[in-house]
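Newbie here. two chains, one complex. Structure please?
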Amino acid sequence: MLSIKNLHASIEDKQILRGLDLEVKAGEVHAIMGPNGSGKSTLSYVLAGKDDYEVTEGSATLDGQDLFAMEPDERAAAGLFLAFQYPLEIPGVATMTFLKTALNAQRRARGEAELPTPQFMKLVREKADSLSISTEMLKRGLNVGFSGGEKKRNEVLQMALLEPKLCVLDETDSGLDIDALRIVSQGVNALRAQNRSFVVITHYQRLLDHIVPDVVHVMAKGRIVRTGGAELAHELEARGYADYLEEAA
Amino acid sequence: MPAVQETVARVRSIDVDQYKYGFVTEIESDRAEKGLTEDTVRFISAKKEEPEWMLQWRLDAYRRWRTMTEPTWARVDYPPIDYEELYYYSAPKSFVAPKTLDDVDPELLRTYEKLGIPLREQEVLAGVEQRRVAVDAVFDSVSVATTFKAELARAGVIFCPISEAIREHPELVKKYLGSVVPTSDNFFATLNSAVFSDGSFVYIPKGVRCPMELSTYFRINERNTGQFERTLIIADEGSYVSYLEGCTAPMRDENQLHAAVVELVALDDAEIKYSTVQNWYPGDAEGKGGIYNFVTKRGDCRGKNSKISWTQVETGSAITWKYPSCILRGDGSRGEFYSIAISNGRQQVDSGTKMIHLGRNTTSKIISKGISAGRSNNTYRGLVSAHRKATNARNFTNCDSLLIGDKCGAHTVPYLEAKTSTAVFEHEATTSKISEDQKFYCQQRGLSEEEAVALIVNGFVKDVLQQLPMEFAVEAQKLISISLEGSVG
């Protein structure tokens, strides 16, 4: 599904990723943990194609397609979804309008017909209900005045609607209370499927109690320094990242 | 938001310098000699078969104009206009007062078709869900055909070319023409008073709610011909009218001067809603060509509890100089101004409004959304004033600017004058930029960069779009996206 080889990337000439390798197979959930400044968020932005980041070496493919040869919107249409740590606000654009515009843009890019409005509305209603998102919320400006929990639920709603192949969750647990964490995790778990993979970026073990990963990676200084099973997360929780930082240095 | 998608598809299909409405209709014109003299004024007046009083009115304006100088206070920059090098009157030559639409030059009808004007009454009536719109089509200087006249007449509404009103309803024209924008008002208004070619006249009798939206499409079609439209709308006591004005113009190399005057009069308890979508040719990517749009629009809330509301979507013209204003004379009267002004390329916009509170308990509201892209400059200039006797005057102003890119400018110049301590004026203003993060977020969800900008901008202007009548709002939304073409990347 996702294959990253020897990835080097920098921002404003500052090297952040230094030879990162990652293989994620279809249907797998990989967690990436690591201390602040290890390059976790950079990895998510580089995969999604944010402007300020420059790939200096290495490759990344999604089902064999070269991600770095595509514009951000083309990567989205190819099945890459990034759940933002800080979802952006767009005043005056109703959430419902945004969802419809995004879905139809992707469908067009894939050569599919646009979804007729009644079908679209029905689809959104179903998905929104399962995430406890009210109709009123869908009418509000995108993420405008949303609480932290509402924003993250809205990210998961978009994920559910757009049905991506690969979901990258960038610190989705940050700013969530226990209840919100549960709703968001249930939403993500409901999307787990044979043909869909997840890369879950997080600081804490907490999220991984809800979204149980198949593989856990430890990232430090722009590389993966250790890989293990779900138990690795618990080990990290107990011991901290200090050892790995020394190792990487 | 299907309009956005459609727009983007259309934008892609347009070459950079290919203005959508940039076609020229080949019809012979009958026009006045180049330059402006008393003879030009007499020629125009004679062409219109005007009575002597009208000619004198024009001549008075002409003589005054000769003593005036062009204003320079607006934040716009253009080479001096040589008024002796312009033509001041042009009428399509094939025009011989058509009795029915079948007599109208087919070439002209095809032009209307390209513009999408529902000129044929039956076409409009055929659309079951389509709201009825009466169109007084102004093709260059002569109103060619007026539809729906019969039904409007049954309601007692007069909706006709102003040249016809001068002949048929002289008492109304004499009473109201120049009563809101006097012939001495300003350089461009005075010029218009001397040489105005045609425009619309509307009279809504007492207590009548106009049964349909009234609409005029303007189109400049003669090379080097200044357009001097004159519109006069009178809403008598307790009446209501909604008037729509939309403009498109063909591609030009030379700049074209457009100096229109619009006067609105609302008597006791009357309401006038005036909506504009302005899409004159803005010039090419280097700023060559394009319309100079120097317009004087003013409404007089003359009666108590009267209301005048201006809504404008300004996307075209090389230079826009325009301040639709309200004089709140009647006690309890209300003025509103909703504006979207978009500038791209090398366009220059200096636009805003004036709310002059004279009566007691008068209220006004200003919502202005300026969007600058490319290398354009966009200025909001507004005056809110309360006279000594305007007790309890209230104004709310919200003035937002959005910048796209880093080579454009947004400027806000509000003037506030309160001569009564009971006045309450509120002013809110913001300036923001479309952030790279917002664009990236949209793109990550599958929108192209152009679609992302269009979506964000449409969100920014939503409050104003909602004020437009339905059929205009859809058109305006498309226009907004088209006019931002080339603003990204």
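Moderator note: The radius of gyration of chain B is 22 Å. Chain B is about 25% helix and 35% strand. Thread marked as resolved.
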